[in-house]
Design a protein that fits this description.
The complex is a heterodimer of chains A (490) and B (445). Chain A contains 21 helices and no strands. Chain A has 490 residues and is mainly α. Chain B is flat and about 115 Å long. Helices cover 79% and strands 0% of the residues of chain B. In chain B, helix 9 runs antiparallel to helix 20, helix 13 packs antiparallel against helix 18 and helix 18 packs antiparallel against helix 20. With 445 residues, chain B is mainly alpha-helical. The chains are: A mainly alpha (490), B mainly alpha (445). Chains A and B meet through helix 2, helix 14, helix 15, helix 19 and helix 21 of A and helix 9, helix 14, helix 15, helix 18 and helix 19 of B.
């Protein structure tokens, strides 16, 4: 491959992306090391400098030797292996790149497995921070040990999936076992495991070639886009950490007042400090993850279903129905979502259920419009005429033939809308509307912190960073899904 | 003039809804005209005997010519059969034509005298025809009507929500100790004891006459409150919009021109981060950095001091800039893949010329639409930014009043923001219609 072509290759771009982000974090940790003068930051920044240097060297060698590991010299392979271990210093970017570089022909299963492994490592590390707490839950040690062993097992699976598995009989049996294993371990909240088991099923168990082709088309684009995989990874880490927190985090640290630990600085015991009631902010943020995520997903799913149905009906049936439905939705559309939510919450009181309903109603017109526009296009296609000619009922045509084909833009919208919903939820909590004040939802945690902005700014900074990370992840994923589903790109 | 009216009349006959409106508006003209038509025109005896003979003569020559053309001997019996058959056919179509009321009405419209005579009762009908005779005027008119309808619907929706609220303003203001008589008094004072429709019509009437009532708490004039708070919100929104356009459009253009380059990726990454930052958190961080640590800018808004508006404008404009930058990039990229750009390249035009002459003029129209739509979302977000920077604007007004809930204040606040959004969307749509040649041509057809 000529160098120019290599520079346009997905892998090379991934490497550059990793290098830039790694450099940014290096600068950030250097700044912290200089201002704080602590050992930990100095070590981390040294590690990051080292990794960035190797990354730079690796990229240069890539241009010379090509992007496939089969063409690589021994030295490049050693560099790649070194970068794999950068995962343990927290450098996801270079690590994910190195994992990718180790496989000759990228398979979806291998990519998923590597990201599962990365998520495992982070889950273990973030859970293990509880060791520094005065006491831990009864189940903490057992779960931590099983998580560590799970990580080791997953590491081995990476090696197993690295080679493209052929369809021999013994392999099929093994793959079946692997699928069962993944389904069970998906109870840790790691959604990637479910995705991987689905992939394995599609590729190695079922025999329908067209299904394989179809799923390949979508997932290959997602797994090759490193930004959307990174987004997916962060979402999975936040979700599974928060999901497991019932067993691994002491609940009373997050919700009960403790007057011995008022407004403490960040430390190993309290990584994000403690708030004005002595509650550990780290535990609160971790606990709140599931709440913020659930509200975000619900306030996207509900309007997607209602708005989708309304849009489909108004797009398919008589113009009179269309006009009536769309004019009513126009009126809703003229009120900004947040203001409508404020009005609804003002009327029916502020609690989580009302918040979900309020935000959902505001998002209905957007989904309805998207669906309607698609239905209008699809209903003119020939296969719809054909199904009408063979005498299918109108409803059956609409929901069996039109809606499934009009879903792609809805999914793209929804993925991007989850991020917006998370922001809206936390904004309303910040205003004191919506989620009850004692619930550790991220907006609530931030609201408490904002009162101490002058003296304890970290109380507002960390939960805010958590929100940004989650929303950014959804936006990354949404962009990836859009690129994968957009017919213009295909 | 009459031709225009007739064209409008034709347009109005095309759709069911329009035909209904045409009957409704012209009911004063239509009733006498219909009666006249029913009794006089339709009953006109079929007397045109002279015409009949003319027609028979014409048919005879017609038959003769046909026979001559086919080189056949004319047959008298066949000739009679042909004539009677053709004549019946012509008569039938004639009858159908004559029975049509809309043609009769069109004939009436043709005479200037008729229009002048019926100008007073038919003014609305003629105005209606005039509006519908041209696509662009019709579009503008319908768009205006839709805006008014949307604003009224907003009033109805928000009022209905607040009316059916289980919250009790009387109890929230007067407290638990209030006697039943006191509460009753409070409710009569604000008309809360009236049935739903009376209250609703009163509110609608109030909005038309600019009498928005008083707040429950403190007895303040709502209109005065809104007047005081509206300018700040408007200034904030407008400045943010200007800032967003000034930053985002060039960034989007650069990213699109140098697509897949380092700059493209960096800009789009930053834009994505801008999209993901909650505005209140950004506001807090700005206050922390520029007010507390660096002591450069005031942390709260002080009326009349422009420096105190800098941070709120940037915070409010961030999300908008991010969206506009992303949209600008994707719109330009989409245009760059069109066939006419390929043609331009094939003609040997320079890249710069292709971009300025062919890509930009086509790309900026959808960008304008996106800006209009995003403006609404930004106004909703203004309430959060206003709370963070303690700006006494319309958004923070709604938030402050929602705890009671102070129905007149919330209603007025939400409706005024909705009006602002509707007007902006209206302007964008009209600009779109005026500036987009493709849409203009479509409308005029």
């Amino acid at each position: 491959m000529p160098p120019q072509q290599i520079k346009q290759h997905d892998r090379y771009k991934h490497g550059q992306f990793a290098l830039v982000l790694s450099l940014v974090f290096t600068l950030f940790f250097l700044y912290l090391a200089v201002t704080r003068q602590t050992m930990v930051y100095t070590l981390i920044s040294l590690a990051f400098i080292f990794e960035s240097l190797i990354q730079q060297l690796l990229l240069r060698r890539l241009v010379k030797e090509g992007v496939s590991p089969t063409d690589h010299s021994k030295r490049t392979r050693i560099y790649t292996l070194l970068q794999v271990f950068s995962l343990f210093t927290g450098n996801i970017f270079t690590a994910s790149f190195a994992f990718r570089l180790r496989q000759a022909k990228e398979t979806i299963s291998y990519t998923f497995m590597t990201y599962i492994f990365i998520a495992d490592v982070f889950l273990v590390a973030l859970t293990a921070l509880n060791i520094f707490k005065p006491y831990v839950t009864n189940s903490f040690l057992i779960i931590l040990i099983s998580l560590i062993s799970l990580t080791v097992i997953d590491g081995l699976f990476i090696h197993y999936l690295k080679a493209d598995i052929t369809e021999t009989k013994s392999h099929r049996a093994r793959i079946k076992l692997l699928i069962v294993f993944l389904m069970i371990t998906a109870l840790t909240g790691n959604v990637l495991r479910l995705l991987l088991s689905y992939q394995l099923y599609i590729h190695y168990i079922q025999t329908d070639e067209s299904k394989r082709e179809q799923s390949n088309q979508f997932w290959q684009k997602i797994t090759r886009s490193f930004t959307s995989m990174l987004g997916l990874l962060f979402i999975v880490i936040i979700f599974s950490l928060s999901w497991m927190s019932t067993f691994t985090f002491v609940e009373s640290f997050a919700v009960e007042n403790n007057y011995q630990t008022l407004l403490l600085e960040p430390s190993l015991t309290h990584p994000f400090g403690t708030d004005n009631f002595g509650r550990d902010v780290y535990s609160r943020v971790v606990r709140g993850g599931v709440i913020s995520l659930t509200i975000g997903v619900l306030t996207t799913l509900i309007p997607m279903l209602i708005g989708g149905a309304l849009g489909a009906i108004s797009g398919y049936f008589h113009p009179l129905v269309d006009q009536t439905v769309m004019r009513v939705l126009d009126a809703l559309y003229a009120i900004p979502g947040i203001l409508l939510a404020i009005a609804i919450i003002a009327a029916f009181g502020s609690n989580t259920t009302n918040l979900v309903i309020a935000l959902s109603i505001g998002a209905i017109p957007m989904f309805a419009r998207t669906m309607r526009a698609n239905v209008l296009i699809i209903k003119k296609l020939e296969y719809i005429e054909a199904s009408r000619a063979i005498g299918e009922s109108e409803w059956k045509i609409l929901f069996k033939h039109i809606v499934p084909n009009a879903l792609a833009p809805m999914i793209v919208r929804a993925t991007l809308a989850i991020g917006t919903a998370v922001i809206a939820t936390s904004s309303l909590s910040f205003l004191g509307l919506g989620v009850e004040p004692h619930v550790p939802e991220w907006g609530n945690v931030l609201r408490v912190g904002s009162a101490y902005l002058e003296t304890e700014p970290y109380l507002a900074i960390f939960p805010g960073l958590a929100i940004i990370l989650l929303v950014l992840s959804f936006n990354f994923l949404g962009d990836g899904v859009r690129d994968a589903l957009d017919p213009k790109m295909n | 003039m009459t031709t225009r009216l007739i064209k409008g009349f034709h347009v109005s006959q095309a759709a069911v809804g329009l035909r209904f409106i045409h009957w409704l508006l012209g009911i004063l003209i239509h009733i006498p005209a219909l009666l006249y038509f029913w009794f006089k025109v339709r009953k006109l005896p079929v007397t045109a005997t002279l015409l009949d003979q003319q027609m028979i003569r014409k048919l005879q020559t017609d038959y003769d010519q046909r026979m001559k053309y086919f080189n056949r001997e004319p047959n008298e019996q066949e000739k009679q059969a042909f004539i009677s058959k053709e004549q019946a056919l012509i008569k039938k179509t004639e009858q159908q034509d004559r029975l049509n009321y809309s043609q009769f009405f069109e004939q009436l419209l043709r005479s200037r005298l008729f229009i002048l005579m019926t100008l007073v009762p038919g003014l609305f009908l003629y105005l209606f025809y005039f509006i519908y005779h041209q696509g662009l005027i019709r579009f503008i008119f319908e768009r205006l009507l839709a805006t008014v309808f949307v604003i009224f619907s907003v009033i109805v929706i928000v009022f209905t929500l607040l009316y059916f609220s289980p919250q009790d303003p009387a109890q929230n203001i007067l407290g638990d100790q209030a006697t039943a008589a006191q509460r009753e008094n409070f409710e009569t004072l604000f008309g809360l004891d009236q049935p739903y429709f009376t209250q609703l019509t009163e509110r609608l009437h109030g909005f038309i006459t600019f009498d928005l009532g008083t707040t429950y708490q403190g007895y303040e004039d709502v209109l005065l409150n809104i007047e005081n708070r509206f300018p700040v919100t408007l200034t904030l929104a407008f400045l943010s919009l200007v800032l967003a356009i000034a930053i985002a459009v060039p960034i989007g253009i650069i990213s699109a021109v140098k697509v897949n380059s380092f700059w493209d990726y960096s800009f789009m990454f930053v834009a994505l981060i801008g999209l993901s930052i909650p505005s209140f958190w950004q506001g807090l961080i700005f206050i922390l950095a520029f007010s507390i640590e660096l002591d450069l800018l005031p942390s709260t808004y002080i009326p009349g001091q422009l420096a105190s508006l800098i941070m709120p404008v940037i915070v409010l404009g961030t999300g908008l800039s991010a969206t506009i930058a992303r949209m600008t990039r994707s719109e330009i990229l989409e245009v760059m893949h069109e066939d006419y750009i390929v043609t331009a390249k094939a003609k040997g035009l320079s890249n710069r010329r292709i971009f300025t002459k062919h890509a930009l003029p086509n790309a900026w129209i959808p960008i304008l639409t996106v800006i209009g739509l995003q403006f609404g979302a930004m106004l909703g977000g203004a309430s959060v930014t206003e709370k963070v920077f303690n700006i006494q604007g319309l958004g923070s007004y709604i938030v402050d009043k929602q705890f009671i809930p102070d129905i007149p204040a919330i209603l007025a606040g939400v409706v005024y923001i909705a009006i602002m959004i509707s007007v902006v969307n209206l302007v964008v749509d009209l600009l779109y219609a005026l500036l987009n040649p493709r849409l203009r041509a479509e409308l005029n057809d």
